[in-house]
Each structure stands twice: as structure tokens, then as C-alpha cells.
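User: For my dataset I need records formatted as: sequence, then C-alpha cells, nothing else. Please produce one.
Assistant:
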Amino acid sequence: MSFPPLLPTYARADVAFVRGEGAYLFDEEGRRYLDFGAGVAVNALGHANPHLIAALTEQAEKLWHTSNLYRVPGQEKLAQRLIETTFADTVFFTNSGVEAIEASIKTARRYHFANGAAERFRVVTFEGAFHGRTLAAIAAGGQKKYLEGFGPKVEGFDQVPFGDTRALAETVTDATAALLIEPIQGEGGLRPVPPEFLRHLRTLCDERGMLLIFDEIQTGIGRTGKLFAHEWAGVEPDIMAIAKGIGGGFPMGACLATAEAAKGMTTGTHGTTFGGNPLAMAVGNAVLDVVLAPGFLEHVQRVGNYATQQFSSLIADYPAVFEDLRGEGLMLGLKMRVPNTDFIDSLRARGMLAIAAGDNVVRLLPPLIIEEPQVREAMEKLSAAAQEFVARSSE
């Protein structure tokens, strides 16, 4: 029996990219693609960003890895910058988003343990959520398609319908440690959580002695036009998981927390071999150099508003293809009336990349450095693909 060298867990498109420049990727044949996927919201500053290249190259020539048995100056610098710009008092660096989620869950459970309430370990999440692929993360998400075949669901997670305050009130018990939510569901179909619901969660946590965890892995580091999406609602979490954009393409993530929420995470309670390595820290600091520079987030808001105006016209122009537009900033999604994967294939054939999401949505997640001409180019390709589907339906 033959088996592919790569474990066949992905239905990969038959294209391989060999070079990137700004908002564009180039395949083996030299064909150029407008990248509105950004490696699933990872390449926040585009491809081959000169500042990131310089930072990584400089660090690579000095030191790659020492482990967390010793001080890592880059960690100290990046942690301080994140603390100064967020609600947090402390940071734990990871290699990925799902590791940041795991650290967040452990931090919340350990908080109650430190308070003498070890029975408070359950975490309430929301239907349609996606928090990663580890056993704990798929249990947190609760989606059958990710849980099937991996044995008993990890204990301690309860799901409630998206935005349902009554179901939430009925689900929370004295054993609930925390609420975990994405301010905008990414994989779940680009569904923004209404600001008033986030404020309700904050109030509920304060009243019941629970911790509020935000999963800002996809929404953070400027993606919505604020450094973090929860800022639009004026609500602060106790714990937050981040990744993707903070590394600009280099694998890294982080768990941020208040001093109170993190008080149970003492020496020996958690660890990582590679997390926070000097290479990742050099890139993370370089990303913040750009994202925190005056005018950058305003640029994301301006181009995001322009993209929203442009893409909204698709709904009226092609009502048989598009149903609605959702999202915030440069995290947008087109709800489709035709299969989203077929539409993405059509876009790719026209030299544009986009990503599928739940609820039959096409995600548009361009690098945050795009300008209005790239939005207009995307509009041309979206329109051309839509025309193809209209023509198909009339045959």
C-alpha cells in the first residue's frame, strides 16, 4: 500500500508559490496572484517586508535558540511593548495560536485553583467558534467535524448558541471558570460579535467571579483597524490569546493576562522549548515597529472602509452570487449563494487568492499594507468570477 510523503490532511490547491512581494505571490511558472488570504491572516505586512527581513537576518547572524532556561532579552522587550499597549500585565510566548489558547485555558483554570476553587474548571464557548486543533481546542470549539474520530471529548467545555444570552445564563454554573470567545468568528463565517454582547460577557464575568478570555489570534495586530478587535467594544478581557499577525509570517503566538488572572501560573506550571526564541522575538518586535507607527492603524481603517464600500456593491450587482458582506477593517467575508470553494477556485484561476470559511463565506484577508488600487484590482477579479457564475446559471 502506497502512502503520500505528506500526511493527506489537506486538500491542497495545485499551485506552489516560490516568491512574494508586498500583496502579491508568484508561482513556479512566474504567474502573479493578488493575495487576499495572507496565509490565513498571518502575513500582516505582506511578503518580503524589508523591515522584517532585516530584523530576522540580523538576529539569525547572532543567535537562534537558547531555551527558556535563560533570559531572552527580545522576550522582555516584546512583552513590555505588549503590556504598554494592552490591558495585560504579563505575557507568555508560544509557537502558535493553539498553544496560546492552551496557555489561556490553563491560566484560567489555575487561577481558580489558586483561589481554592479547583472545582471551577469549565469553560463556556460559542457555537461556530474555532480555537485550534489540539484535543482541548477542538473540545472548546465543539464542532463535530473536528471532534469525530479522536476519542472522548476533553472534559470541561460547554457550548452555547452564538449571541444567546438566555442560553448562556442557563449554562453558566458555579463550576464555570471562564468564558472564551472570538470578537469576530473567523472560521465560523466572519461573524462579528455585537459590542453589547461583549459588554454583557464582561459584566457577567465580574458578577460571577469568572475570567473573560478573548481569542484574538485572527483579529489582532491591526486586522480590524484597532490593535485588537475588542477595543471597538470598549471591553477588556482578563486573558487573551494572540498569534498570526504578530509574527508577520514567522511562527509565534502569545498568551496575555492581567496579574490577577495569572497569579496561579507559578514556576513549573507551564513551559515551552521553542516559544519566545530570539528569532521569533526579533520579528515580533519588528512587526510592532510598523503596526504601532503613527498612522498605520488609521491606514487600515481607511482602506478597510474603502474595501467595504467597494465590495458591498457586489451584493446589488450580483444578487444570485453574493448574499451579504460582513466583518471589520481588513477582515471581511462575502456570504455566498454559490459554493464558496468553487468561487475561490474561480478567483485563483484569475490570479487572486481568498480563503473559505464556515457558513459558505469567502474570507478576504489581505495584507494590512494594501492600498486602494489593490482593492480595485480585487473588485475586478471578484466581478469577473461572479459573471462566470451568472453565465453558468443561464446555460
